Please model this.
Amino acid sequence: MNHKPAVERRPSEKVTCKVSEITISQLVGQVYEYAPPAERKRLLEHLLRPLGVLSLVAIANGVFAKIRFRSGWPDLHVPLEEAQNVQASDIITLVDHVQQVSVHAVDGLADMLAQSPVMAGSAAAALLITVLVQRARTRRAGDLTSPRATA
Model:
């Protein structure tokens, strides 16, 4: 018999190890890639809202600027056909940029996905929700302990 000492990890440690290998933008890209058209449309609308025209022109060869201009201003309604034409790699680039502009917009994806019965069975969506909620809690805890919060 081979008696190797087993290294036990708590479940949260296992998740943390795997999550560290993938970024939030990559998770959103995976969620988008496997999402049905209606959910893709909702994801796109949510992510495009905080960005201005110049930002949209600068990312993914202007794909999102074209969508924004065709959908009208100030209301944003992405047609299903347009959502189907956006690639996961474009979404990854978009999320990277949105996080620089409004981290709260990306964190808001957790609520949006949690409310979607269609996305409830997606492992990538479940992992993304977990990571975003954890990140938001960590940020709030940091805000409470910062010197500005106590002043």
In short: The chain has a mean pLDDT of 81.
